[in-house]
Design brief:
There is one protein chain. The protein has 260 residues and is mainly alpha-helical. Among the domains are: 23-107, Arc Repressor Mutant, subunit A, CATH 1.10.10.10; 123-196, Winged helix-like DNA-binding domain superfamily/Winged helix DNA-binding domain (Arc Repressor Mutant, subunit A). Helices cover 54% and strands 10% of the residues. It is built from ten helices and five strands. It has helices at 10-51, 58-65, 69-82, 107-114, 123-135, 140-147, 152-160, 183-188, 216-231, 244-259; strands at 89-94, 97-102, 138-139, 164-169, 177-181. The strands form two sheets. The chain has a three-stranded antiparallel sheet with strand order 3-5-4. Helix 1 crosses helix 3, helix 2 packs across helix 3 (69-82) and helix 5 (123-135) packs across helix 7 (152-160). It starts with 9 loop residues before the first helix and ends with a helix.
Length: 260
């Protein structure tokens, strides 16, 4: 049994081909517009990624630039190609967003610039830091009363290192500034909180005495000697100087005796 094929007129064939060509042309125009939009917003996207301190999502970049997310995605793709290869800065997709970061190829150089030099604290700085840690918040005058010397330079050094910071003004006459330790201090010394500091074993009301200048053996010998000096002080009589009149009378008496 044979079926007859429908006969299509030439005009109908041309008419059915027109929608296909129109769709292809429309898709081409749309791709062209998308590419132009991506090129237009690429500088803005790059600048936003440069100043941002956290990864930026495509949706947020689209809102900031006022363009479609497809254009933003294409701009990110083009930037990724530009920052690819042997570059010091790369475009990374992290934490659900995008951000500019330094390449692992230049890690050593960047760390040498950013990280502070490895230097140790001086003895006066450690002294002052210990006072602040145990007495915080503490004023500079209270620090100097304990150390016995001016502490302006040491306090400034500790502030520059980020180990102590200002804790507000004390409610006394003059309202002096008080100081406290910082989170960097805890991190540097391996402490979770100030409560982890070694406790000072002092009885209530007992003053803190530090024998900083005497060696251990000399400290043991100095204590009994100090106690004996208090219990039995040695008194020595000093001769009383003669007045001028007494001196004249004494000379006259000596002269009479000689003449006699």
């Amino acid at each position: 049994m044979q079926t007859e094929e429908p006969i299509i007129a030439p005009d109908e064939t041309v008419a059915s081909a027109e929608p296909v060509e129109t769709t292809e042309a429309s898709a081409h125009d749309e791709a062209q517009e998308l590419h132009l939009a991506a090129q237009r917003i690429a500088p803005a996207v790059e600048a936003l990624l440069f100043v941002a301190s956290e990864p930026l999502e495509t949706k947020r970049l689209a809102k900031l630039t006022g363009e479609d997310e497809k254009a933003v995605a294409l701009a990110l793709q083009e930037l990724s190609e530009q920052y690819g290869g042997n570059r010091g800065v790369v475009l990374r997709e992290v934490a659900g967003g995008y951000r500019l970061a330094t390449s692992s190829l230049v890690r050593d150089v960047v760390e040498a610039y950013l990280l502070p030099p490895k230097t140790s604290l001086s003895t006066p700085a450690l002294e002052t830091l210990a006072i602040v840690a145990h007495m915080q918040p503490v004023t500079k005058s209270e620090i100097e009363a304990i150390r016995g010397v001016n502490s302006d330079s040491v306090v400034n050094t500790l502030q520059d290192r980020g180990l102590i910071g200002e804790a507000g003004r004390k409610d006394v006459v003059g309202r002096p500034m008080t100081y406290k330790t910082t989170p960097l201090f805890l991190e540097s010394f391996g402490l979770n909180s100030i409560d982890d500091l070694p406790q000072l074993e002092l009885e209530p009301g007992q003053p803190l005495e530090l024998n900083l200048l005497l060696p251990p053996g000399a400290q043991a010998d100095a204590a009994p000697q100090a106690a004996e000096a208090v219990d039995s002080p040695e008194e020595t009589e000093q001769p009383i100087a003669e007045t001028p009149d007494e001196a004249v009378e004494s000379d006259a008496a000596s002269a009479d005796t000689s003449n006699a």
